[in-house]
Design goal:
Number of domains: 2
Shape: elongated
Radius of gyration: 20 Å
CATH topology of the largest domain: Tetracycline Repressor, domain 2
Number of helices: 10
CATH superfamily of the largest domain: Tetracycline Repressor, domain 2
Number of strands: 0
CATH class of the largest domain: Mainly Alpha
Oligomer: single chain
Amino acid sequence: MTAKDNKPQTRIQRKKHALILDAALDVFSTDGFRGATLDAIAARAEMSKPNLLYYFASKEAIHTALLSRLLANWLDPLITLNPSGDPLQEILSYVQRKLEMARDYPRESRLFAGEILRGAPHMGDALRSDLRRLVDEKATVIQGWIDQGRLAPHDPHHLIMSIWAQTQHYADFDIQVRAVLGDADWAGAEAHLKQLFTRMLTPT
């Protein structure tokens, strides 16, 4: 809602709010922040621009709302990496969940990529605080497994970034993937990444 309206939303207002965010996700993930317009978002949501502005004061407000929701979902798979679990299975489960997110939430992945390419003007603080703390925490867990001889030696921070690169690629570069493969081969991608990380991380 707009900043001036702090009242609890009605069911209809919640529905409209969700409709706008879903429409905006389509527009932002396709056209980028600079290319997106309130007119395009309103048209995609099948409502008038003044009606849209009743819920969000600006394009920036919609974009920020989407990014706030996205970051929480994006961090969840890494949060669930269990220090007490089997190291290789924990890493493989993380890879699988990230790949599933690329498959199931390609618009969100491209929205995130677009924000990063713009220099993260809306998410920079969160990336340098929440994300960095979480990655440092999980890198410490992975390094502990390595020190115990339960995983082959690798830089934990770069391992996490490699997982991001090799899973989110399938969403962020969807056009390229489909141009080469015809259709996104998710089962093949999962099998390949499982084999890749198993061989890379299994202690010799």
